[in-house]
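REQUEST ID: PR-0412
SUBMITTED BY: lab tech R.K.
PRIORITY: routine
TASK: structure prediction, single protein chain
INPUT:
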Amino acid sequence: QRAVTDTAPAQAVEDYARYLSLTGADDPAAPQAADLAERAARASNTASGWLLLADLTTDRNRRLEALRRAYALSPHDAHVLTAVGHERRLGVRPEDCLPYLEEAERIDPGYVLPKVERALLLDNVGLSLAALTELEAAYALAPRSATVLRARLQVAEHAGQTALAQSLRQSLLRLRYTDVEAHEGIARDARARGDRELVRREAERIVALRPESLPIYTEAADFFEAIGDGGAAVGTLARAVEVAPDEPTLWNARGELEERLGRRDDARASMRQALALRPQDASLRRHLEALEPAVPRPDEALAEDATALLARREPAGSQRVDYHVRSLAELT
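STATUS: complete
OUTPUT:
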């Protein structure tokens, strides 16, 4: 906390911004890591400081300016060249990244990120097998790099190599057991195979690993519903509602789940709560009206009961009529 004071040295501010990023301690509601990184970068004017800002900011213009300053300070730094290449790969002309990546690899042949970036470029243009070959070379240089494993996993999925993707997820979890995305992938694979127990374990695990993430509860509920455990699915969304009771999408998701499970009374209660939080949602209002029990309209309430009306009918051939009859004749 001393790093956020006005008199703190630039390196301390940069270290604190890096700490917030690495530990996930930056508050999403009031993020400050990027602002701290920019403050440190402007004070020290180092390539590493500007690269940190480029990595942390969500503003593209701010990121481009940070990369421009970093490149001006260190045009022959492999990390700077790779960061610039990464940004070019995500731009309108992805092939513009190649000169930067080749130069970074020439300067530091042992640095694997240029290879990863080039492999992702190949994958983006449909050359998944060539990308896998590139990543195998990167894996040989850094077999314990989570970045390389994630890139290989992504490309393997795009190439349709399911067995390789499953093996890479297991390797990634051996390296970083808290990787939620890998656990989600294992749960999806298990659901496709019909392994109910593994799906259940992974669904419980992803909620335990990231209890503050609302989408995680929804995904876990989907996993529970897929294996036929509706009670666990509703319970998972109930926990999400406890975390964020004012979030209408959670109440709506819970109501739709309860409707699919045939719990219409519970579904109506959940959707009423969602509508109270978001009264302008016309589709939700119509959905709730469709779930409500049918009640007669005011004009229908004054009409005579159909049974009493039909009881006035006389046997066939009788001339007696106790109710008004209008005869219609075709005049054309």
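NOTES: Residues 10-23 form the longest helix (14 residues).
REVIEWED BY: pending
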